[in-house]
């Protein structure tokens, strides 16, 4: 059972998230919060596998709550909920160690897919979020889109063939276990490859590596959801 905490300052959004998540028999919503501070308190008390946090909340926002969770409840993986136009917040959350990013207006199936992915140790970027991050990096002086894509491809070219293969799966939201099964290797081998990939790409976490995969155009579509 995947135990999930929901945090959003809008009651109707929380109700919608709960309604979607409870359609999956393997997911249990263990609490709801209307602000980041309450979310942290609930997470400390109930130790959920996943916390789904709105990026903007009164008092303590989603990024601040995530930082506190990373410090005090590190086993809880964080998915950030965002809307279009919040690119600066997304980049801050990416650097802060968020495991997943979802657009509030996305398909319900994507919420379940994202929760399952991060609970299994993967990173999950909504394709819409990945596209926004890539475009925003180009628009904020981090190089034109063409330049960044070329740079990303060069960085990916520096990986070994096996590492490139692992990056494709990583960028598609697969966990180490899922990648291991696809490649018919043990999970420890995949973990070693992922560590090497992060070092070679110069990024700190799987979500940032997934962004590079999207920039380089090597991220495959996510696998179909199985219930």
From TrEMBL:
Positions carrying 4-aspartylphosphate: 54
Q: Which CDD domains did the record assign?
A: LuxR_C_like (cd06170), REC_NarL-like (cd17535)
Q: Where is the HTH luxR-type domain?
A: 152-217
Any idea which UniProt keywords this protein has? Answer: DNA-binding, Phosphoprotein, Transcription, Transcription regulation
Residue ranges annotated for the Response regulatory domain, each copy included: 3-119
Read off the Pfam families from this record: GerE, Response_reg
PROSITE patterns the record matches: HTH_LUXR_1, HTH_LUXR_2, RESPONSE_REGULATORY
SUPFAM superfamilies for this protein? C-terminal effector domain of the bipartite response regulators, CheY-like
Q: Is Signal among this UniProt entry's keywords?
A: no
* Protein name from the UniProt record: Response regulator transcription factor
Q: Which organism is it from?
A: Paractinoplanes ovalisporus
């Amino acid at each position: 059972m995947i135990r999930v905490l929901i945090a959003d300052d809008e009651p109707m959004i929380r109700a919608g998230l709960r309604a979607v998540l409870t359609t999956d028999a393997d997911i249990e919503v263990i609490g709801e919060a209307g602000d980041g501070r309450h979310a942290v308190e609930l997470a400390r008390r109930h130790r959920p596998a996943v916390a789904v946090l709105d990026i903007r909340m009164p008092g303590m926002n989603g990024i601040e709550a995530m930082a506190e969770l990373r410090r005090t409840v590190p086993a809880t993986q964080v998915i950030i909920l965002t809307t279009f136009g919040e690119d600066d917040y997304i980049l801050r959350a990416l650097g802060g160690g968020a495991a997943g990013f979802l657009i509030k207006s996305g398909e319900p199936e994507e919420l379940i897919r994202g929760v399952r992915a991060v609970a299994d140790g993967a990173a999950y970027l909504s394709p819409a979020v990945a596209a926004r991050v890539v475009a925003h990096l180009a628009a904020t002086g981090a190089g034109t889109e063409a330049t960044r894509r070329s740079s990303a491809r060069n960085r990916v070219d520096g990986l070994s063939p096996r590492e490139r293969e692992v990056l494709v799966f990583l960028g598609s939201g697969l966990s180490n276990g899922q990648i291991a099964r696809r490649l018919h290797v043990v999970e420890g081998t995949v973990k070693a490859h992922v560590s090497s990939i992060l070092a070679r790409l110069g990024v700190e976490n799987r979500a940032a590596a997934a962004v590079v995969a999207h920039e380089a155009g090597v991220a495959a579509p996510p696998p179909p959801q199985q219930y």
